[in-house]
């Protein structure tokens, strides 16, 4: 191949890295911000739950009405003493009456009495038609248990629960609410179509009414209670808020914008109008079994001046909920903690300025990352790292000292994303610079080698890449081989190789890369390495392997590069040769005592031109037969007048051989070409590979 050697184009001027630093940092920060909107809520909840586990709130240590909440639990002991739930209203009346005797501020029922008592006299008589009419009349004349319960409720400061539902229930417009909630709650406030209330006989006499709705977060954990709930369009107080209002003797609950007001006290809420609690462990001293209350076995001041909540806490009837501190707890204790929190300031707050500070810290980290990239100094990295490391401790201090929820993940994620984006830019830029420097280094070294004679070392390296005479001779005793490679200059684009595939098969190939000199030598090294790797590794046949090799070479070749190759797979047991020709010189067959002849092959185009399905072609060698593979550096050798050595010169030289000994044929052919070229310099690289089959 005689194409002119390519010359390296001058490297384009380097663009300053600083031009892209701020853009890349900003894009990375934007990606981090978007990612934080997705991953931050669940991670934030987990982090704040962990803070609560590490530092639970001390119940009964607040500033306002500390320790003024008690819980009466209808537990296993109570069911054993009174009977299964639901109890007759008589016992609930006695329970309420006993608690009210200690003059609590309010009694809240964490339950709803939506049906009349099953043991009311009229319902009891209906169960036994055999009862004597006079006895039935006497029983029916007795006051109903609901009436007795209603009388007690009317005389005690009782708040009955209600439930917002979307199915059958009471029209919110027809439900009595006193006092009304002032203002409009936030848009995200839970809204229900109907209200489930206790029976009218009980609901009408209660001091107050409140909603029991308090849905958990999407992970099933209760962290918040509603300050108010929307029933239709009417805001109704949550149970904890209503009990806290009564405890503080506040006229009504109110909303001012998105701020909840309990008298003059501002209660922080989220966009759903809910108060996030800082949970603690409810003290055992404030828990009382209903059985012990009915037996009057509790201290005489257990409920005096307190908010008392009555709830269910026995297997099968309990309202079980998960909180940050407990995987299973009773819902009535969540209400109790919520009341205590509203009275003592035991809530968690995440005001708008705190959320804004997270974005501000994230922006600060982005600015530090940008400065580090644009100034190429280390100190902004150290400052950014220090700020990032301080974020979790800062979150803990704000939680512990002010019950504030500062999320360290968001600013950390924004700053880290900006740093990763900038680091990626720097890595890509450095990689490009290394490639340019490597290319420049190669060019400089090649130039220096030409000036200082160092290309002789490159020649030695190239010649060291092809098999030695001893290696060729020791491949297989059934196949004798010899070869020579002489670059036209110090290095060139010709190559050959011989590889054992298995005990019986040997692989030979001869190739020629377009051009001469260093570019051809570099591409020769790539081509030879790929050829050896692909041809040995592929198991789909020789043609399939050659097709794969062509595609692999095309990946890394430019328009000026091409490779011709003749590949021979020899079976030493049978003498069968399988050959593929990619634009290369045809092989020459030599039989003992006969003139040499060229084996015409169908073949295909050189590699790196187009994808092509190269055919396999077969040839059999009898014992004593030989095959010569060569590059066009042999046939295109020129004398001083420009005449070519040609195929005729090759045939003439081989025709004068004494035998088919490969080493002798190679030496005689090289000598004939060099004698023909003398005194001119060789015009192309020269490679000859000769094989002689000795038989099985």
TrEMBL record:
Residue intervals passing through the bilayer: 20-40, 352-372, 379-399, 411-428
Residue span, PPM-type phosphatase domain: 476-693
UniProt KW keywords: Hydrolase, Membrane, Transmembrane, Transmembrane helix
Domain CHASE2 stretches: 40-372
Alphabetical list of SUPFAM superfamilies matching this protein: PP2C-like
Coiled-coil intervals, chain numbering: none
Tagged with keyword Transmembrane: yes
Protein name according to UniProt: CHASE2 domain-containing protein
Species whose genome carries this gene: Novosphingobium anseongense
Origin organism lineage: Bacteria, Pseudomonadati, Pseudomonadota, Alphaproteobacteria, Sphingomonadales
